[in-house]
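Q: I have 151 residues here and want to know how they pack in 3D. Can you give me a structure?
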Amino acid sequence: MPALPSGTHIAFDPAAIFSLLEGPHTVDKVVQLMLIRNWADMQYLLEIIQLVPIEEADETTLPILLSDDSLQAPEGHVMRPTDMSVPEYLHSLEVSKLKADHEALVAELNGRAKDHFAFLLERVQQTQKLLLEMNVEGSHWGHHLANGGLS
């Protein structure tokens, strides 16, 4: 997990994006999904998770669950949701005058994180294409959505 210069360890939670990709595709989900055009758009749906020492665990913390190709999490840490998207977290670093952390996170987003989540952006684009093809073929997803969704 990226360690920021201040010592804060973070992770990216893509749960909101996976939720959009999973059926049924409601109107709200389809609209949100179709608004993702690139990596920058996808960052609004990635939540920042802080990894904190287990001694700081409370009712908001969870065991660390990471994908196999993620960076190694520090030993003896748990996850604490920030309830902030990547842009919101970047803004909070700016407001807090944590310039080095801000710059390190931007570098991570433009490098390893972008490469790491390329598969997810590709999956979003494939789903968008499928929805658009269904619309072109006369099988309007709006009709399907009104009749119970796409699964």
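Q: Anything worth noting?
A: The chain is about 45% helix and 15% strand. The radius of gyration is 18 Å.
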